[in-house]
Amino acid sequence: MAITSTDGAAAAPPPAQPDPYALRAEDARPAPNRFRGRLRHLGPGLILSAAVVGAGELITTTSLGAKAGFALLWLVIISTAVKVWVQMELARWTILNGRPALDGFRAVGPRIGRLSWINWLWIGMDFAKMFQRGGIIGGTAAACSILFPIHGGSLSGTSLTIWAVIVTAAAVLILQTGKYHVVERVEVIGITLKTVITVGLALALPFTAYGYGTEQLADGLSFQIPAGTVGIALAMFGITGVGADEMTTYTYWCLEKGYARWTGPDDGSEQRARRAEGWLKVMRLDVGVSWFVCTLCTLSFYVIGASVLHPQGLVPEGNDMITTLSHSYTDTLGPWAEYLFLGGAISVLFSVTVASSASVPRLWTNTLGLLGAIDWNDMRVRTRTIRILTWCLPPVWMCFFLWVQSPVLMVQIGGIGGGIFLLAVVIAVWRLRYTGVPPRFRANPWMTAALVLSSAAILFLGVYGVLDTLGLTPGD
Fold first, then answer.
1. Cys staple from 125: which of 108, 403, 421, 422, with CB 3.0 to 4.6 Å?
2. Which among 3-7, 48-52, 106-110 has the top mean pLDDT?
3. What is the Cα–Cα distance from 161 to 142, expressed in whole angstroms?
4. Strand, coil or helix: what is 297?
């Protein structure tokens, strides 16, 4: 039986699945007004936590603690805290407008061709991030190779190459099965277990030979940057907590979760404004939970590196990175804990690879749409392009690892690229705040003050990093 419209003309049948990037009045629904109800609608932040609590915390943060000791503990706290407000502001614009971040960046001029300078900067940053994602694949392969060596020893070139291929293929195949939501739940469980173990180890350290006390913690909060740690500190600031690429990706997850779709198109009504306020509260809770998890994990990883690895002069480097990091477990819990560490490291790093393989193709597909190469608004074209890029991009990242063969350096390169892009995101957020967010939704003075402080801290550290690179900082 044909479906007809009210004027008698034939109408197209409704899609089997609503387009998560399209706003339709019939999809709008009020947000829960109780805390328990809001908890049931969390999701994007948990996905983000699964992606964030990985390379930055396990590799860069622990390496920073091993190199600098407790001296940069303050930077860990600032790194995870100041970015949240920029993330929240960008997500608010997305929910109110129903558009992802890269689409918004395009509106922040000047333009170069069809794209804004920020879009082009994102493209450059993502090429730097390819080193980071390759490093994560390499770290996962190294952990697998130590646990199950293949031909020629645990860290031989042959074993690492085979495991890198296996890790990459597994991530791609998982996403091609269409059961990624199941994998996400498994990843969150795995990261939760890793978090419990890591936090537990950090809290137990004072009762071991590698204990720390209030004096070390006080030194770590003295706002100093020891000589020789600026580079890795900037990489840590760019990669730990919610980085610029995660902020950008978060807007896509908010759309696919339904926050904007349930808010509905802006018809100027009071009802729509109240729905928007309700779903923005859900988003802020989602961001808060994600921030808490990221901060707790980051502090734990840093304390472990500073307390266990730093006194022994052990700094994770090259392909021996996983072996060095395992000392944080074996030196405190015994040799058996190496298997505990390797299993947790594989779970954490592989979850990041899967998350990147799911998110990055979406951003590149959106970029191709902005360039006019595809029709982003056509759901079939968009889905097909994302699937093709999911097959193509992870093998490229793997090749970067096989070329460089240094997971720590590769992650740091990606972190510095992310730190530079973060400066552009701050500029974009302020522009979008006053061009795409009605005054009603930016009237909270406390959130405005937090955004100001967050932006100032990011800009200060970003400028400091540029000056240090040029040798113009005090003392150079």
1. 421
2. 106-110
3. 9
4. helix
Tokens describing residue 269: 């009504």
- Pairwise CA distance, residues 193 & 188, whole Å: 9
State which amino acid sits at residue 251.
T
Task: Measure the CA–CA gap between 306 and 312, rounded to whole angstroms.
Answer: 10
Q: Which amino acid appears at position 134 of this protein? A: G
List 116's β-bridge partners, or say none.
Answer: 111
d(CA 46, CA 159): 33
Q: How far is 101 from 96, CA to CA, in rounded Å? A: 12
Which of 432, 425, 436, 435 lies closest to 459, judged by CA? Answer: 425
Pick the more confident residue, 422 or 375: 375
Which string of DSSP letters, residue by residue, matches 174-206? HHHTT-HHHHHHHHHHHHHHHHHHHHHHHHHGG
Total length of the chain? 476
How many CA atoms are closer than 13 Å to the CA of 248, on its beta-carbon side?
32
What burial class does residue 218 get, using C-beta atoms within 10 Å of its C-beta: 0-12 exposed, 13-18 middle, 19+ buried?
Answer: exposed
Q: Which two tokens stand for residue 4?
A: 């007809």
Residue type, 381: V
Q: What is the pLDDT of residue 124?
A: 86
| Contact by Cβ (8 Å): 241, 83 | yes
What is the structure's pLDDT at 14? 44
Q: What's the burial of 109, exposed, middle or buried (CB within 10 Å: 0-12/13-18/19+)?
A: exposed
CB 232 within 8 A of CB 67: yes
* CA 89/CA 248 separation, integer angstroms: 11
More confident residue, 173 or 242: 173
Asked whether the CA dihedral 154, 317, 72, 189 is positive or negative, the reply is: negative
Q: How far is CA 274 from CA 277, 344, 434, in A?
A: 5, 43, 20
Confidence grade of residue 190 (pLDDT, cut at 50, 70, 90): low
Integer Cα distance of 134 and 459 in angstroms = 28
The backbone torsions φ and ψ at residue 24, rounded to the nearest 5 degrees and listed phi first, read -130, 140
Q: How many CB atoms lie within 10 A of CB 445?
A: 8
Q: How many CA atoms lie within 13 A of 407 on its CB side?
A: 31
